[in-house]
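Support request from a user on the community tier.

User writes: "When I paste my C-alpha cells into the form, the page sometimes reloads and wipes my input. The last time it worked, I copied everything first. Here is what I submitted, just in case something in the input itself triggers the reload:"
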C-alpha cells in the first residue's frame, strides 16, 4: 500500500483542512466518471478516510496502514463514531465558524457523483457560567451514519459498487421528447442509482445498498470558554455519512445562551440590577453580590449614590474567546424608598426633612430640572 500522505499529495503535518482540500481536488481528478482510474480513486478515498480521522491518522502515523477500503468488516467504524464519541472531540473542532457552511460542502441536491454526506446543524444551550469556564456537552444527533452491517460499502458481500446498469455510470438518463419544434433531449437523474452512477449488485439488508442509515448518536463536544450566542463549532466528519463510503459531512454545533436569572449580557459585559436602601445610598456602605463565577464580591457603595448609577466590578463579566480577557460586571443601582414606615421612623424622616428645609407641602415650581440634565 503506498503512503497515504503521498497519495493525497500533502505533507505529513498537513492540517485537516489541507487534507480535505487535497482530497476534493484529487477526487475530482480521479473520479471514474471523469475518466479517472477507479483503483486510484478508491485509494485516495481510503487515504482520506484514514487521514481525516484524528484517531485513525494517529494510528496510521505510528503503525502504518492496517487495511484496504474493502477490508472493513462489520462492526468496524471507519470514521471513529459510535464508541461513545470521538475521544477528545475538542481536537477536531478546528475553528470558530464564521461563514455558514462555506467550507465547500455540497449544497443541497447538487449532482455530485460521490455523494458526500451533508453537513448537519444541531443547537446546544449553554449557561453564562459555562461561557466563563467552557464546558463539555453531550449532543444527540440522528443522522445517516455509516451502516454497521456492511461497513459503508452498501454491499452484502463487501464488493465495491459497479457502474449502474440503467445509466451506464452517467448518473443521468436521457430522454428524447418530440415537440412541435423538433426532438428535444432532456436529462434527469437516474432513478436506479439516484444520480450516483454506481450500483451495488447485492445490496446490504441493513441499508438497502446506501451504505448508510439513520442512527441516533451521542457525541461529546467541548465548548470553549468565551462562546457567544450563534457561534458555530465544527466537528469535522461527524455529519451525515456519504453514500457508499463517500466522505462524510461535518457537524456544526450552534451555541444558544440560556437567559440568566440576574445577569443580562451587553457584549462581554454583564449587567445586573441591585436594590439599595435609600439610607445606604445616602450614607454609603458596601453590598456583597454573587458573580457569574459563583464567587461573591464586596462592592463599595459611595455616599450619595443615585438611582440608575452603575457600580463597576472589573473583569467579572464574560471572557472573550480570542483573548480570554473578561468584560465587567455593571451593577445598575435602584434606590429603594421604604413603604412600611412605623411611627418612629416617620417622625425621624419628618425631622430630617425639616432640618434640610425640604417642606412636605411644596409647590411644583423650582422642583423641575432642565430635561437635558436627565440624559447627561
Ligand atoms: Zn449496509
Ligand atoms: Zn444509474
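"...and here is what came back when it finally went through:"
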Amino acid at each position: 500500500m503506498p503512503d497515504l500522505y503521498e497519495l493525497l499529495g500533502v505533507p505529513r503535518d498537513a492540517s485537516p483542512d489541507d487534507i480535505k482540500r487535497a482530497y476534493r481536488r484529487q477526487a475530482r481528478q480521479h473520479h471514474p466518471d471523469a475518466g479517472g482510474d477507479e483503483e486510484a480513486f478508491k485509494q485516495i478515498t481510503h487515504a482520506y478516510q484514514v487521514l481525516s480521522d484524528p484517531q485513525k491518522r494517529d494510528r496510521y502515523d505510528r503503525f502504518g496502514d492496517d487495511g484496504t477500503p474493502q477490508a472493513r468488516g462489520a462492526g468496524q467504524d471507519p470514521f471513529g463514531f459510535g464508541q461513545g464519541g470521538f475521544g477528545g472531540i475538542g481536537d477536531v473542532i478546528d475553528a470558530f465558524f464564521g461563514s455558514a457552511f462555506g467550507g465547500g460542502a455540497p449544497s443541497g441536491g447538487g449532482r455530485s457523483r460521490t455523494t458526500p454526506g451533508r453537513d448537519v446543524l444541531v443547537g446546544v444551550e449553554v449557561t453564562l457560567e459555562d461561557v466563563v469556564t467552557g464546558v463539555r456537552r453531550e449532543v444527540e444527533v440522528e443522522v445517516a451514519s455509516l451502516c454497521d452491517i456492511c461497513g459503508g460499502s452498501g454491499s452484502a458481500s463487501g464488493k465495491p459498487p459497479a457502474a449502474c446498469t440503467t445509466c451506464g455510470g452517467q448518473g443521468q438518463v436521457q430522454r428524447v421528447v418530440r415537440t412541435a419544434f423538433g426532438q428535444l433531449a432532456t436529462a434527469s437523474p437516474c432513478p436506479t442509482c439516484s444520480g450516483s452512477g454506481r450500483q451495488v449488485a447485492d445490496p446490504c439488508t441493513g441499508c438497502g445498498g446506501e451504505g448508510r442509515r439513520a442512527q441516533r448518536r451521542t457525541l461529546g463536544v467541548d465548548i470553549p470558554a468565551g462562546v457567544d450566542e450563534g457561534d458555530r463549532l465544527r466537528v469535522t466528519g461527524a455529519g451525515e455519512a456519504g453514500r457508499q463510503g463517500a466522505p462524510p459531512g461535518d457537524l456544526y454545533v450552534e451555541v444558544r445562551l440560556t437567559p440568566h436569572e440576574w445577569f443580562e449580557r451587553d457584549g462581554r459585559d454583564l449587567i445586573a440590577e441591585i436594590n439599595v436602601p435609600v439610607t445606604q445610598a445616602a450614607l454609603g456602605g458596601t453590598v456583597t453580590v454573587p458573580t457569574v463565577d459563583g464567587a461573591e464580591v464586596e462592592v463599595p457603595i459611595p455616599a450619595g449614590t443615585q438611582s440608575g448609577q452603575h457600580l463597576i466590578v472589573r473583569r467579572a463579566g464574560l471572557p472573550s474567546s480570542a483573548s480570554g480577557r473578561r468584560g465587567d460586571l455593571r451593577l445598575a443601582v435602584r434606590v429603594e424608598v421604604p413603604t412600611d414606615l412605623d411611627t418612629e421612623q416617620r417622625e425621624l424622616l419628618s425631622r430630617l426633612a425639616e432640618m434640610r428645609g425640604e417642606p412636605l407641602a411644596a409647590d411644583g415650581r423650582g422642583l423641575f430640572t432642565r430635561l437635558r440634565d436627565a440624559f447627561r
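Agent notes: The reload is a front-end session timeout and is unrelated to the input. DSSP finds eight helices and 16 strands in the chain. The helical segments are 4-8, 16-30, 38-51, 54-63, 128-133, 278-283, 343-355, 371-374. Escalated to web team.
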